[in-house]
Design a protein that fits this description.
Strand order of the largest sheet: 5-6-8-7
Oligomer: single chain
Helix content: 55-70%
Number of helices: 26
Length: 615
């Protein structure tokens, strides 16, 4: 009797190979501490939870709080350190890359899917390897897209419930996870539009279509109010115009009578989504309900983030840069809409700019390349309008899938608002590349050799950015990063950017410990990393002063709170950060208060000034 030989699935070989490739490329970058205050925030909040405090009640939690619970759980098994925060981060990142590869496999060959997944990795996580909550929003968004593709394949109701669970977990990491809730609901709406073989002109159809379009216009108006400062602002172009274009798609599909809404299907899918969404959300809220702190939870999740939106702003690139990104839109259009020569030139645009950048190394070309990539969500929304208006056959056959990945790419990219620093686009890169690859797979747009050159150009840009570009100027200026310094602290050794800056932090932390100041020191403004590295207790209920300041007040209220803590806790040492990350200036009233308390003995550690007073 001969046993039938079975060959393992090629994917079972490709997936481990992908993970190994990602690890090999990412290893030199993944333990770097790019912005110490960001990781200090994550570590310090996790430590607060480990001490028995609960997010928003016992301390000022800058995010929803779920990630602090996860990191505290990790701290219960390994010594608290910045590296320990990366353990769950690496795990989720690896799972997300596997999921992304399997998504690509829905449309592409094994080799193409492998290359695209690896390109998404090279262009995202290694460029900014800090375990920030926005990364978890991205990872869960990838899982959600994967799950909804499974739902499309077999109409599994379980897949919808699981999607709801994933959205709730994303929101628990950071409130911007709600963007994927909006994306999923929008996908369910368009997925519930069924093809109408007879154009309907009856009044009932017009009334239903008009009502749906009114809702679409209301949503776009809401986006305009929330994300834009006017029709001529960059925020309008990057964040609001795509919604207007999607409403144009809706109007074209609904008002012409080509599609009608299957209300029953939409309500059923929405109901199942909410069923999956509620359990974890309610479980997280239980402690607040029992303690009568629901109002505190609401303020911490919704009110305080709005203050952050008003206080911490980073501008988008100017309109001139966006104009030069028009070839990106043309490159995504099928060849038959443009003509072969124009399509070829458009697709070679990135290649030519990358070559020019390699020759000149100018900041303008560097920024132009990243702005071109950041304009992809807008370009894809515009291409959608063209495909719908032209009644493209490929679009009609794959419309649900196209809507799914386009919505996901756009809504995840909203994480760039209002702090539109270049690194925030990295949180959307894998899904943006996924959607772009789908558009480029159009039967009349397949140009394998040229598409491969485009992918190579992006790969080169990502590698150069990761290896030589400073995070503080990422996406804007091609600046050589200073050498890294391996600082030795009570919380283990940590890589810090710049030898001199790293030595200052190392010496400051050692001074705090040698003098026994751990539980009798105040560090501000914006010093959560100093507290954590020095193994000190943050005596203040907040992490960043700028988020506790009312712009309308001439004297910030937090200064009086600091004064109260000095009196109650008997604080005799004060670390003043003269180069804060978020608080843009040292308030004169703070300096006056320190003089009143006779903090006069000064010791400098670079930007940090250690002030003490005699007792």
């Amino acid at each position: 009797m001969h046993l039938k030989s079975t060959k393992p699935s090629p994917d079972l070989i490709a997936i481990p190979a992908l993970l190994i490739s990602c690890a090999i490329y990412g290893a030199p970058f993944l333990f770097r501490s790019w912005f110490p205050w960001d990781e200090g925030t994550l570590a310090l909040t996790a430590e607060q939870v480990s001490r028995g405090l609960w997010p928003h009640i016992g301390y000022d939690e800058p995010y929803t709080g779920g990630l602090s619970l996860l990191n505290a759980f990790v701290f219960s098994f390994v010594p608290p350190s910045f590296d320990a925060l990366r353990l769950p981060f690496f795990l989720f990142a690896g799972l997300a890359m596997v999921s992304l590869y399997l998504i690509f496999r829905h449309w592409f060959s094994l080799i193409t899917s492998f290359v695209l997944a690896l390109l998404a990795w090279v262009s995202s996580v290694p460029n900014y390897p800090a375990p920030m909550p926005s990364w978890y929003n991205l990872f869960f968004a990838i899982f959600i897209v994967h799950g909804l593709l499974r739902y499309q394949a077999n109409r599994s109701m379980v897949a919808i419930v699981v999607t709801g669970v994933l959205i709730s977990l994303s929101v628990l990491a950071k409130i911007s996870g709600l963007y994927m809730l909006a994306s999923t609901m929008l996908f369910f709406y368009f997925d519930s539009l069924t093809r109408s073989h007879n154009v309907q002109d009856d009044n009932s159809h017009r009334l239903s279509a008009g009502f749906q379009i009114l809702i679409g216009l209301s949503v776009s108006s809401g986006f305009f109010a929330l994300f834009s400062r006017g029709f001529l602002s960059q925020e309008f172009a990057f964040f609001v115009l795509p919604v207007f274009l999607l409403v144009t798609v809706q109007i074209t599909m609904i008002w012409t009578g080509r599609y009608v809404l299957d209300v029953r299907r939409f309500l059923q899918t929405a109901g199942l989504l909410i069923t999956g969404l509620l359990p974890f959300a309610l479980l997280f809220a239980v402690p607040y309900v029992l303690d009568g702190e629901v109002g505190t939870l609401y303020e911490g999740i919704f009110v305080r983030p709005s203050v952050r939106l008003q206080s911490v702003v980073y501008p988008l690139p100017n309109y001139l840069m966006l104009v030069f990104s028009i070839p990106i839109f043309l490159a995504l259009l099928p060849t038959r809409f443009l003509g072969g020569w124009l399509s070829t030139i458009s697709r070679l645009y990135l290649v030519l700019v990358v070559v020019a950048f390699l020759v000149t190394k100018t900041n303008y070309l560097y920024e132009l390349l990243w702005v071109s990539l950041r304009s992809l969500p807008l370009a894809m929304a515009a291409v959608l309008v063209v495909l719908v208006v032209r009644r493209d056959d490929w679009f009609e056959r794959n419309r649900s899938t196209i809507f799914l990945v386009t919505f996901a790419a756009y809504f995840v990219s909203l994480v760039q608002f209002p702090y539109s620093h270049g690194v925030y686009f990295l949180y959307a890169v894998p899904l943006v590349f996924l959607a772009a690859a789908l558009f480029l797979s159009h039967p009349y747009g397949r140009r394998p050799k040229i598409n491969a050159l485009m992918a190579l150009a992006v790969f080169i840009l990502a590698v150069l950015s990761a290896k030589t570009s400073s995070m503080s100027t990422f996406g804007r200026e091609y600046t050589t990063q200073k050498e890294w310094y391996l600082a030795d602290t009570p919380r283990g050794r940590v890589l810090l950017p710049g030898i001199t800056a790293g030595q200052h932090i190392e010496n400051l932390v050692q001074h705090i410990n040698n003098q026994g100041f751990n539980n009798s020191v105040i560090c501000l403004p914006d010093c959560p990393h100093i507290y954590f590295l020095a193994n000190s207790v943050n005596q203040l209920p907040w992490l960043f002063e700028v988020l506790n300041a009312d712009p309308a007040q001439s004297r910030p209220a937090w200064i009086d709170n600091v004064s109260d803590v000095i009196d109650r806790k008997g604080i005799n040492v004060f670390v003043l950060n003269r180069s804060p990350s978020h608080t843009f200036r040292l308030h004169t009233d703070l300096l006056k208060m320190l003089r009143e308390y006779q903090f006069g003995n000064a010791l400098e550690f670079g930007p940090f000034l250690v002030l003490s007073r005699d007792v």
